[in-house]
């Protein structure tokens, strides 16, 4: 039986970075719970705002949450009021659920995703939304792959759905792919995401792989050099 591994986790430290960048021996459990609640809250709150990813950085008494979105204007709001209200709501939830120190600082920033059509998490959520609206799954996944491949940087794409497709009694998996997806090549830059469509006849799992190109060791060193200085 084949053993599956997350393509992003497989490449951590090679050409992928960690989504949470911190370490603490004394408060590891507390920070882990805090990260989980932050991600859960933002994913539910910003579901319709083209959410592409959440990264968390920590220092002594502060946490910096970076939200990647294809529609940052919806999150920031007029004059920055939207993101400030979101930050206050997030902090109040952390104080209520985890009883964190009210003096601790929570920073929230938003970065725009330039090519949302080739971002795996946004594509997966888009497919989930269409399946929840009872769109035919074959046409949905085929159109999604075609749309991903329109980006000049993409060299391959694959979409898989699994569950009671179109309401059939027996669950099954269906997939479509175009180009190449070298999953076992560590230098391959592969974006991967999962999503779930909640339909009237059950849940449908969605997986999306997007292959851009190979990243070699020289390029990784060049990317790290400016930040190290």
TrEMBL record:
SMART domains: KH. Residues 38-114 form the KH type-2 domain. One of its GO terms (molecular function) is structural constituent of ribosome. InterPro entries: KH_dom, KH_dom-like_a/b, KH_dom_type_2, KH_sf_prok-type, Ribosomal_S3_C_sf, Ribosomal_uS3, Ribosomal_uS3_bac-typ, Ribosomal_uS3_C. The keyword Cell cycle does not apply. Pfam families: KH_2 (PF07650), Ribosomal_S3_C (PF00189). PROSITE patterns: KH_TYPE_1, KH_TYPE_2, RIBOSOMAL_S3. GO terms for cellular component: ribonucleoprotein complex. Keywords: Ribonucleoprotein, Ribosomal protein, RNA-binding, rRNA-binding. Belongs to the universal ribosomal protein uS3 family. This is 30S ribosomal protein S3.
């Amino acid at each position: 039986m084949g053993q599956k591994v997350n393509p992003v986790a497989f490449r951590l430290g090679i050409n992928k970075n960690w989504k949470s960048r911190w370490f603490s021996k004394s408060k590891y459990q507390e920070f882990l719970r805090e990260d989980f609640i932050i991600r859960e809250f933002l994913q539910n709150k910003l579901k319709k705002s083209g959410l592409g990813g959440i990264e968390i950085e920590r220092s002594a008494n502060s946490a910096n949450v970076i939200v990647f979105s294809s529609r940052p204007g919806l999150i920031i709001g007029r004059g920055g009021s939207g993101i400030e209200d979101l930050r206050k709501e997030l902090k109040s939830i952390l104080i209520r659920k985890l009883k964190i120190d009210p003096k601790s600082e929570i920073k929230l920033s938003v970065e725009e995703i330039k090519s949302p059509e080739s971002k795996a998490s946004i594509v997966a959520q888009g497919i989930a939304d269409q399946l929840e609206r009872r769109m035919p799954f074959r046409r949905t996944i085929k159109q999604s792959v075609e749309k991903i491949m329109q980006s000049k940087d993409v060299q391959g794409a694959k979409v898989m759905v699994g569950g009671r497709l179109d309401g059939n009694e027996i669950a099954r998996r269906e997939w479509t792919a175009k180009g190449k997806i070298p999953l076992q090549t560590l230098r391959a830059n592969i974006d991967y995401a999962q999503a779930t469509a909640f339909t009237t006849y059950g849940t449908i799992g969605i997986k999306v792989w997007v292959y851009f190109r190979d990243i070699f060791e020289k390029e990784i060193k060049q990317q790290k050099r400016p930040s190290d200085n």
